[in-house]
Amino acid sequence: MKYSRLTKEQFVELHQEFINFLATQSITAEEWKNLKENKPELAETELDVFSDLIWEGVLNTAEYLEHISAKHMYLFKLGEDNMQAIVVNVKHDIDINTTEGYNWLRDNLMDENVEFLQAHKEYSEDKNLDKFKMIEQGAIITKGELFKYFDNLIN
Questions:
Q1: How far is CA 35 from the centre of its chain?
Q2: Pfam families under this entry (predicted)?
């Protein structure tokens, strides 16, 4: 398994897609039930393969990632050859994950306690795995509104 297995909730959400996946392998509902009961290790393998396929699709289409902590906002644009990063560091005694802290940041973007950094990072040989590792560390896939906002602000 390259990534991680989908959660039970994700499998429930993707029930129809999983049925289609099994159908492409000529596995009927009855055969799937039999597989789970008599060859659970093979059924586990099918779940893992399906999970990796879903992750590949998601990672191939992801364009932006965000990871926001109490004092830092990491915003990434996922390009074809590299990632563009914007980092917002807050040196003020606030937590930007709270409404109060976020409002302070919004109202004080040019304050000396707010620092902006930009960088580019090349992907390794497996760019989807690079993206997945960032998600495992807490990043979330977004539409890029924050990245675009700060990119326009500082460039």
A1: 32
A2: DUF6495
The dihedral sign for the CA sequence 143, 144, 146, 149: negative
Which of 149, 131, 137 is CA-nearest to residue 80?
131
Dump pLDDT digits (tens) for 79-109: 999 999 999 999 989 999 999 999 999 999 9
4-38: pLDDT as tens digits: 999 999 999 999 999 999 999 899 999 999 999 99
Phi (first) and psi of residue 120, to 5 degrees: -120, 145
Reported pTM = 0.85
35: CB partners within 8 A, 6+ apart: 27, 42, 43, 46
